[in-house]
Amino acid sequence: MSLSYPRNGVVGGLLLSKCLFLLFLTVCCTPEEPIQCKSENTDCTITNSYGTFPDRSVCRAHNVVYPTTEEELISAVASATKKGSKIKVATRYSHSIPKLVCPSGQDGLLISTKYLNRVLKIDKEAKTITVEAGVTMKELINEAANAGLALPYTPYWLGLTIGGLLSTGSHGSTLWVKGSAVHDNVSELKIVSPGSPEDGYVKVRVLKDGDEDLDAAKVSLGVLGVLSQVTLRLEPLFKRSITYKTESDSDLADEIVSFGRKHEFADIIWYPSQQKAVYRVDDRVPTSTSGDALYDFIPFRPTSSQLLEIIRSAEEALESSHNAEWKCIFGKLVTSYLNISAYGLTDDGKRGYPMVGYQNRLQASGSCLAEKAEGEVELEVEEEDGDAEKGYCPWDPRVKGEFFFQTTLSIGLSSVKNFIQDVQELVKLQPKALCGLELYNGILMRYVTASSAYLGKEEDAVDFDITYYRSHDAMTPRLYEDIIEEIEQMALIKYGALPHWGKNRNIAFDGVIKKYKNADKFLAVKKLYDPIGLFSSEWTDQVLGLQGGITTFKEGCALEGLCICQEDIHCAPSKGYFCTSGKVFKDAKVCSRQNQVGDVLVDIK
Ligand SMILES: Cc1cc2nc3c(=O)[nH]c(=O)nc-3n(C[C@H](O)[C@H](O)[C@H](O)COP(=O)(O)OP(=O)(O)OC[C@H]3O[C@@H](n4cnc5c(N)ncnc54)[C@H](O)[C@@H]3O)c2cc1C
Ligand SMILES: *[C@@H]1O[C@H](CO)[C@@H](O)[C@H](O)[C@H]1NC(C)=O
Ligand SMILES: *[C@@H]1O[C@H](CO)[C@@H](O)[C@H](O)[C@H]1NC(C)=O
Q1: Which residues, by range, are in coiled-coil regions (predicted)?
Q2: 226 lines ligand 1 (CB under 6 A)
Q3: In this predicted model, what pLDDT tens digit does every residue of 546-564 receive, in sequence order?
């Protein structure tokens, strides 16, 4: 369905009623396989769950193997090592945005952990769980809960595998105890690496608490070998109480650190253009507290392809007509919808906060992965369409739905206040510039802590998740391109932010390794575990500072985050976008749109 951009409230109203009808569906689609092969398991391509890497290239591999046991995994590594083949581990869904999963060159081997998905042991006494590395968060959390145990802090999305999320340092949100990264509660890892001929070309190491190499292996970008088994420390299952509170963002900069210290599972959704912050007041409560709430985050629910297409078409139309006004209106619709739906929290029809429930039902969600979602809105779907339609994860590349960039950076607690104030300064200059973020649920701010992992966080920090429109055409600029580029560069350069290894555009990784004080220790372990770099690729070598090429200078490169513009040609001069300095962070070089007569919106100076 195509849609010209909304000109009046009628279209907005129509959109809203459509949304309400189509938002939830009962049946949903398992995401597509990230690996596709021409003939049986050979001549393969691999992509991520969004279907597109930051540079839009397609990655190739000679073949893929799907070990079902540790023995098969070990023999796959041995035979590839013997041949000198490049190797990469792939997972069930492959959720990372950068090209982490691509083996070097075109003839490498992919080892998929799709069938290494068993829970091996739960030790109730020691409160630990041992799993194969392909186990998803969903399986892990469910199994732990069945034994009365819980993982206290995890990412919010159930589709990740334990091997993948550890490799990229993934996290939830807390400043308490040891912080929100899953890798900080690994007590044991088994890792399968290349070996010498005397070793039979493969070496299996077991790393336990206290082993120095564990600090390399628990966040490894996959370059040390294959994680085969992981043991995590758990806690007795507990309950939480969640209340979302909306406030003006005028004291956000002052409150952010103390809010994080006050509430164990705190996070904040920031709507900078609306000048609002939604505080998640989230703490443990005694298990005797009544409530059985479920968190089923709305943007992770199965969504109809029709609705996704309507939203995307509207977004594209507003982009191409430079209609910031309507982006703001549309953004507010999305914001209010999330708000009235309690961000996806439900408890048997209960209205209002607090929502109380068990950890395993609240920490993470992802019903768009499941066979069946909550039945709640079945009726409405039937009214609309006659029969139940399939629902998708909103970014599923088979649907013309969400297509976005993600800039995910953590900024140390000592400078987060200044960063927020700088962003607010930009909003003052361009009040509508960040409305587009609201379509992607605002800026999610989460707390992370310094880690002993060599590639973990260097200091306690706030992680900013900024998701925004990406055009399907690499040469087409975005509305207010310059403002988000300025925020990105401000974070990275002025405030020394660290990128999430599994998200971001290329420029976030330019020179990144210099920000890690233990990078040398990491590289020493890499040399020991994989001396000839079979598990390394162009991308990991670039990220680890072993080879140049993270940024490339070519026409339009800044539009895709492949470079910071130096000349106009790196932007889109033919479309009126030129390389200029930042407005608040003057050292930034951004693609900004120069005055053009006859547009809906006239920007700049
Ligand atoms: C919808 C969504 C929500 C998300 N939410 C969060 C969040 O709340 N918090 C957060 O921190 N991140 C989040 N992420 C990012 C995500 O955590 C990372 O991208 C994560 O690495 C993806 O895990 P995966 O299992 O898909 O691994 P992949 O992306 O497939 O793999 C990541 C890397 O790990 C390597 N690898 C995988 N398994 C192994 C193994 N067994 N041994 C060795 N190397 C291995 C791969 O080769 C690759 O280099 C989210 C992503 C999505 C799509
Ligand atoms: C790790 O587990 C312990 C309990 O064994 C718990 O107290 C702590 O909060 C956990 N830390 C993280 C980072 O999950
Ligand atoms: C959510 O709704 C409440 C109650 O109507 C309102 O006070 C608050 O401002 C809303 N928050 C957002 C982010 O719209």
Answers
A1: none
A2: yes
A3: 999 899 999 999 999 999 9
